[in-house]
Amino acid sequence: MKLQYNKLWKILIDKNMNKVQLREAAGISTNSLAKLGKNEPVSMTVLMKIATTLECRVEDLFETALKCTSRNEEK
């Protein structure tokens, strides 16, 4: 399963906030922000800090997508 944080970036646009402002307001590391930018998993603590800062639910921040693989790759 692949995470996509497009919903987070949309919320930032709607709130007229950039990534640096989010990082500072939420108290998250630059490493966590970089992971979000690469659609890599981050801890629930990071997601909760972001959701609290943006006044939304954690599930409002990301979408999941099934990663398609061929049968040959599964062997």
From TrEMBL:
Coiled coil stretches, renumbered: none
Domain HTH cro/C1-type: 7-64
Record-given protein name: Cro/Cl family transcriptional regulator
SUPFAM superfamilies tied to this protein: lambda repressor-like DNA-binding domains
Molecular function as annotated in GO: DNA binding
Pfam families cross-referenced by the UniProt entry: HTH_26
InterPro entries reported in the protein's UniProt record: Cro/C1-type_HTH, Lambda_DNA-bd_dom_sf
Gene3D superfamilies listed in its UniProt record: lambda repressor-like DNA-binding domains
